[in-house]
Amino acid sequence: MKRTGRQILRSAALGAAIGLCGAVSGALAAPPGDLPYGAYDPGGDYRDDGDLVIEHLFLPWEDVYLPSLVDADGYARARNRALIVTLEPWTWTRSERNTAEALREGIRRGAYDANMKAVCDVLATLRSPVTLRWAHEMENSDGQFIWSGWDPEDYISAFRHMTDICRASAPNVRVMWSPAGEEGLEAYYPGDDYVDLVGISVFGLQANDRFEVGRDRSYTEVLGPRYQRAAQFGKPVVVAELGMSGSADYVASWDQALRQPEGSYPNLVGVVYYDQKEVYAWPHGFGLPDWRLEFRVTD
C-alpha cells in the first residue's frame, strides 16, 4: 500500500517517540494499516510478525527477575522492536501485596527508591529503545490497583520522584504517563517535563456494550473521548493497552479500524495489543474476558 505523506510522518512520529528507526513489512498477525503496531505477547503469537515495532513487557518492582529484561532486549533487538516496560509498584504475589496507604507512605519515605533504581539500572544497559510506563491507569476507581484513585497531589509527587530516580540511572529511557483515559485524568498529569508520551487503554467487550448501551460500540467510539482527553497535553499518544472480544463480526470491525481509524487523531502514534486473558473481573458479571487472538472470537 502506498503511504501518504501524513502516514509517513505519523510512523516517523512513533520512531521519534520511542526511538525506533527502520522499515517493517510482512504482517502475519497484525491488522491492516500504517499506524505503528505492537503487542504484549507472552504467548508468542506475534513472534515472527515483521509488522510489529513494539514489544510490551509487564513486571512488578518487587520479586522481579531482572535478567528477564536482558532476555527481552535480545528478543526485541532480533526483531527490530522497541520496548515498552510497564512497571507495576507492587508484588505479583497477591497474598503479600501492600495497601495503597503503605505504598504511598513507603514512596514518600524513600522505601522503594532501591526498587526503582534496580530496574532502571538494568534498563540503562539495554540496547533496544526503551519507554518506561510506571503506575498506569491511576485515575481508575475500580479498585484493581493500589496506586489508583489517590489524591492527585500524592500521585504526582510519587510519579515525579520515581521518574527522577530512573532518569538518573537511565537518562535515555523515555517516560510514558498512562492513564486509562477516563474523565478527570488531567488532575494526575505530572507536568510536561516528566512526560514524553501519553498512553491510554482501549478495550471492547461486545457483551458489555450491549448491556450498557444496547448495541455494539465501534473502536473509534471508545477511542475518541479517551484520545481527546490524552491529546490535550500536546504529547504523542499511544494506545498502550488494547483488546476486544465478541462475535467474529465485532472483532473484525475493531481489527480493521485499529491502524486506520476514521476521524482525526494527529497525536496518535501507535497501538499496542494486549494479547492475554484479563486478570481483573469486569463489572456486570462478565468475568475475565479473553483478549488473546485465539480466543477473542466468542461465537
From TrEMBL:
Signal sequence region: 1-29
Presence of keyword Ligase: no
Enzyme active site: E137, E241
Highest taxon above the source species: Bacteria
All copies of domain GH26, residue ranges: 3-299
Listed InterPro entries: GH, GH26_dom, Glyco_hydro_26
SUPFAM superfamilies assigned to the protein according to its UniProt record, in alphabetical order: (Trans)glycosidases
UniProt KW keywords: Glycosidase, Hydrolase, Signal
PANTHER family referenced in this protein's UniProt entry, alphabetically: GH26 DOMAIN-CONTAINING PROTEIN-RELATED, MANNAN ENDO-1,4-BETA-MANNOSIDASE E-RELATED
Family affiliation: Belongs to the glycosyl hydrolase 26 family.
Protein name (database record): Endoglucanase
